[in-house]
Each structure stands twice: as structure tokens, then as C-alpha cells.
């Protein structure tokens, strides 16, 4: 791993102008093998979460119901409720879609895909099918240049260079997260994207037709504010932004895991993506020596604050590796 002269710039309090570059494979595959060889009982945790469907159904129906109640509300009330309540539900559903991208609700993959489109409904924008395509590549090719679209683009990194720009970037980070793959590594839409799009637009039109634009605006605002300057959105930064140069994935062990499908257990998740979020805490309990020594967080809000205020941290604070490194390791 190296970063050349940029490391010296960081020591002087100046934001670096290049990513962290690693010349080894990502750490999770090797740690997975080590843990399973020592604790084979962890395999018993693999498989779907039997409560996933119920949890998703409750969140979807509750959010749509609240949207109908706000059909005649004032805009300030809609915004306040969207930030203080709806944002938590929609972000929960976004992370439910993340869970479903790993087929962790049903053993049959297509059932997870249908449930993902159902979970997508209150989010307002069709994304569940496309998300799965790119997210699985993030796991298989973590940090690989030109493949892992979770890593910011050079354009983002060169523009976001101070606290003001970082604040704007955080507010809009959901847009960067959603549109970055479409510009940098577009994939042709297929049959399932068309279904996802059709179902979502049908729901959106139905909401507008029967309850009006304010109900629809509540859903969109819940998605937007929940993915920006919001405590739950801290996981976008905490998961892989490098605050400690010798570590590229970080876990969060705080109370918001209860609302986010335990996505905070992110080292554990990348080590064992076949274990549902509801059981990831057991991985740390079974094999604590592999995780206790890693840097972790207890507050996502604090992570957002550190990201904005630390002059040495920005979009370049990500680990990257060349595709050839991963290819050689997989041969």
C-alpha cells in the first residue's frame, strides 16, 4: 500500500490528491478463510432471515400510510416529518434492498428480487434491481479501479476539497451514489430493470392521482434527506472511507444498527455476506480476536462531522487497487 508524497501532505494538514493504493488483495476473503478454519460453526449462521418479509412489509405499509395522511399538510410539516420520521423508514428500506441483494430473505433468488421491488416502493425512484448489479461487484472487486463504483470518481475528489464542498457533497451524496455508476460504468438495462421501473412508476402515479403531489413529495423528501446530512447516512462514509491508513473497512457498533439491518457490522458483513444482518453480531461474539483490534465507530453523526471538518479527509480517502492484482489472486 502506498500513497507517495500525499502522505506527507496529510501530515501537514493538507488534503491529499490521490487515493490510497493497495498492492494486495482485499482483506475479507483471506480473513473469511481463517475464521472458518478456526470456527466452522459460523457456517450455521448462513442463510435467509425468516423475519425479513414481515419487517419490510411493515415499513413499506407504514410509510405509504403516512404519505396518504400528509396529502393536505403544509410543506414545512411535510419536511419536518420527512426528516424526523420518513427518512428513517426509507433508509431502512434502502438497506433492506441491500440485504435482499445478497438473497437474505428467501433461498430462491427471484423471490428476493420481487421483494426488493416491493421494498423499493416508498423510495419513489426505481433502484433495487440496478443496485444489486453494482453492489455485488463492490463485494467481489472491493476498491478495484474502474469496477467498484462505491469509490468516488476523480471529478468528485478534485471538486470536493474543503469543508463547504464536503458539506454539499454529504447533502447530495445519495445522488453521487446513485448516478456515479450510470456515468462511469453504465450497464444496459434488462428485463428486470423494466419491471422495476414499471412497478415503481405505477405506484408513483397512483399516489399522485389519489392523494396528490404532497404525498409523493413526502416519499421523495424522505429518501433525499435520509441519504444526506442525516445520522443514518453516516454509514456511507464510515464503511470504507480511510481514517486509519492501514484499514479499508470499518464497523459501527451503535444503536442505529437496530434500524439499519445491522449494516454497521461492515467488516463482518464483507467477511460473511451470506449471513443476514440480524446474525452478524454473532460473528463478532464467536471470533472477537479478529475484530476487537480493528478501528470502529459508535456514532455515525460523529463520522460525518469528522469527514467534513478533518482537512486531510475527503473523497480521495478510499483504498483502491488495480484490476490486475485481483485477477492474479483469483487465478
Automatic annotation (TrEMBL):
Domain of life: Eukaryota
All copies of domain Sphingolipid delta4-desaturase N-terminal, residue ranges: 14-52
GO biological process: ceramide biosynthetic process
Catalyzed reaction equations: an N-acylsphinganine + 2 Fe(II)-[cytochrome b5] + O2 + 2 H(+) = an N-acylsphing-4-enine + 2 Fe(III)-[cytochrome b5] + 2 H2O
UniProt EC number: 1.14.19.17
SMART domains registered for this protein in UniProt: Lipid_DES
One Pfam family per UniProt: Lipid_DES
Membrane topology per record: Multi-pass membrane protein
Membrane-spanning segments: 51-71, 78-97, 159-179, 191-211
KW Magnesium (keyword) present: no
InterPro entries given in the database record: DES1/DES2, FA_desaturase_dom, Sphingolipid_d4-desaturase_N
Gene Ontology cellular component annotations, sorted alphabetically: endoplasmic reticulum membrane
UniProt entry tagged with the keyword Protease: no
Compartments it resides in: Endoplasmic reticulum membrane; Membrane
Molecular function per GO: sphingolipid delta-4 desaturase activity
Protein keywords: Endoplasmic reticulum, Lipid metabolism, Membrane, Oxidoreductase, Transmembrane, Transmembrane helix
Function, in words: Sphingolipid-delta-4-desaturase required for the biosynthesis of delta-4-unsaturated sphingolipids and derivatives.
Family: Belongs to the fatty acid desaturase type 1 family. DEGS subfamily.
Protein name (Swiss-Prot/TrEMBL): Sphingolipid delta(4)-desaturase DES1-like
Lineage of origin: Eukaryota, Viridiplantae, Streptophyta, Embryophyta, Tracheophyta
